[in-house]
Amino acid sequence: MNVSIIGIGLLGGSFALVLREKYPKMHFIGVDTSPVNGQLALAKGIVDDVMPLAEAVSKSDLVVMATPVNVIIDLLPAVLDHLPSSATVIDLGSTKGSICDVADIHPKRAQFVAAHPMAGTENSGPGAAFRELLPGKNLIICDSDKSNTESLTLAESLFRDAGMKLFYMTPKEHDLHLAYVSHLSHISAFALGLTVLEKEKDEQAIFDMASTGFSSTVRLAKSSPQMWAPIFDQNRTNVSNALAAYIEFLQQFKQVIDDQDVATSLDFMKRANVIRRVLDGIEKR
Amino acid sequence: MNVSIIGIGLLGGSFALVLREKYPKMHFIGVDTSPVNGQLALAKGIVDDVMPLAEAVSKSDLVVMATPVNVIIDLLPAVLDHLPSSATVIDLGSTKGSICDVADIHPKRAQFVAAHPMAGTENSGPGAAFRELLPGKNLIICDSDKSNTESLTLAESLFRDAGMKLFYMTPKEHDLHLAYVSHLSHISAFALGLTVLEKEKDEQAIFDMASTGFSSTVRLAKSSPQMWAPIFDQNRTNVSNALAAYIEFLQQFKQVIDDQDVATSLDFMKRANVIRRVLDGIEKR
């Protein structure tokens, strides 16, 4: 079985590494606009070959698209055009609405499976890929009723064999939830990083005075701009609403602090503490 | 040597645990308004005795104040009143301006050392204390020139023996920096927790769809309201300015997303990425 990975970065590379372990006879073809990434992926044993897109797709039984979401949208029609009639395309993009819209108008829509693994790190590129990224994580499949049985069954089997738990929803539901539980926390971290860097021109002061709490909160500010800018753009209505709600809470919090209203400040934090239940669950997962 | 720990929680308890290991003959007296905390601290071997405040202080060579900062301010005059003439008081509060103001007008000011360890977790109480919290972390001493040589030398020796690296600054500098590198990240996490909990009434949805990135960013929302409300209140001018700067960046980010201005979105994130240098340093520390 030939598997092409388009975009051999953190996610595409990690998916290839876990599949290789489960299916030693799968043959992996890497497609990447960066020749350096291709060489790194070969050297790291993520893929067996590197090829141009059209050639790779036409030889594939399965194509996995793991580029930034704007590139998935740009390439998906061509990938479907070149796809053999019994093959399957899976995308792993972090937004699903715009990608499914593009797929929906293609004659080969049924060979496409829209998926999103709830996994990532703040690092990127093939050097960041590791076999343990996906096992134990959740994965969302959107519009599964629009995929044909063969393609859907193949995708589900591979994700389950990679140790993932599957959930199903519409692209609309997916994009709304993700704006809150993922996209917003990235923007909150990017803005926190900017605020602190602007104030503390002397990086040594941040270094000396910051503790692990700061590191944890701002960690996502290390994330790849090339990956995240298209996500925020494609999911802009939901992200903008989530940001508006977040800014509103921050403004309320600021007012409470300005007013020296310690009782309301306590109340805000006690309500926020409820998140402990959810986080303890995620950490045990 | 008798050491009283006023407030036997995460910080006071962790400091006692690391000192016990270095100085097996030190005798630790716990002071806590919660009888349960006192019993837990005895059971966990954090302290040898539990006593009321005045009795404990009058028997002490060293008093460590590790309560919420408003309680430090309330108790510090009485602690200094009861303090034997050759003894020392150290406070470990997260704000330094208001606490030093109270100390400055007391006749025994020279027996007081104002300190703040850059360490903590989102957990609280004696059950959360652990010996490894402080070793390897930084500690700030404020207004060291106002402490007498004996008290300052004792405090410095104990902190160094606890494995900490010492920095010196004024309370004003301390409170300004901490507003950015610590207090702001706590508010950002509390507000993120509130935003997500308000939107996602169904906690299961957050649980299913959140990844480790969300956990990391929102982790500090688990922190103790009783500890943090007084910190935000005492450092309200700096915290309010930091929050205003943060809200401004978020509003700019929102505008950029609303305008579909992907180039500026990329630029924001690239500038925020600079934080990687600082974080990599903190993690290696």
UniProtKB/TrEMBL annotation, chains A, B:
Chain ranges of the Prephenate/arogenate dehydrogenase domain: 1-285
Enzyme class: oxidoreductase
EC number(s) from the headed UniProt entry: 1.3.1.12
Oxidoreductase recorded as keyword: yes
Keyword terms: Oxidoreductase
Listed GO MF terms: NAD+ binding; prephenate dehydrogenase (NAD+) activity; prephenate dehydrogenase (NADP+) activity
Pfam families xrefs: PDH_C, PDH_N
GO biological process: tyrosine biosynthetic process
InterPro entries referenced in this protein's UniProt entry, alphabetically: 6-PGluconate_DH-like_C_sf, NAD(P)-bd_dom_sf, PDH_C, PDH_N, Preph/Arog_dehydrog, Prephen_DH
UniProt xrefs under PANTHER family: PREPHENATE DEHYDROGENASE, PREPHENATE DEHYDROGENASE [NADP(+)]
Entry protein name: Prephenate dehydrogenase
